[in-house]
Structure prediction request, 296 residues.
Amino acid sequence: MPETTNCNLCGSDNYRTKARYTWFIDLNEPYEICECAECGLIYLNPRPNTQELIELYANEPYFSRGNANRGASRTEFYTNRMRRLENAVPQKGRLLGIGCLEGGYALEIAQDLGWEVSGVESSEILASYARDNLSIDVQTVDAWDLSGLPDDSFDAIYTHSFEHFSDPLAMLGQCSRVLKPSGTIMIEVPNQFYSLKDKVRLTAMEILGNHRYKVFRKPPPLHFHLYFYSRMTLSQMLESQGFSIDQIKTYVPWHPVYHSNKNGKWLQESLYALGGLFGAGPSLELIASFGGKKLE
Prediction:
């Protein structure tokens, strides 16, 4: 059965539903997008319960080997990302990957660059792909649980699964525990609802009507995202757990996920570039260092 939840950032149970956003990503009842009335965090509420999420990661085609194979064609993209992490942590050491979406190719590249890499993943399909095809040490755990990892054992953490975590604050607490003092975390999430592209889509869908809408008509499979972060809410969440924001950007010059739709490609490319100039690109990439007290 679906479950309801309070805001993960401030704990408030005071929220307003966002019917336009729910319609925008084609969610079905009982699931809805809501916004915390106190801090502005947008999240799925109600949402699938823990067991439903476990089954989702086991059976959803998005977490299949086909998705993992796709990462092999994105070497340049992941190399550039790992280089940006490398610039933030010049002394390469131990790197923990939380999530192996698209097979864990980013972790393989980090390994080739000299990092000592290991990972955790909730989907056994993706975890086994990373182990068998990329020779990466990946554990399959429920909800990306880090409890089996020792304290102060990693120099950096990389994740592009943060929007999937049911309790991101608790996950950041786990991250601070396993990071060495002054360790670094790199997070990538969609800039969902806040990007220029999404704002244009929302306006066009309202004017034309969903049944007549053609450009960008098919939404990506984002119904299993539990949180939708802005620059502000993502930064506040990390800062509340003792992290200092070193860098945050809302635009990566070329991102394969956001450049794969062939419909209206020229318009998409223009919106990505223009959005990037005004902090409204399709992707949020954050690098932060941990300098606070370890949470109990």
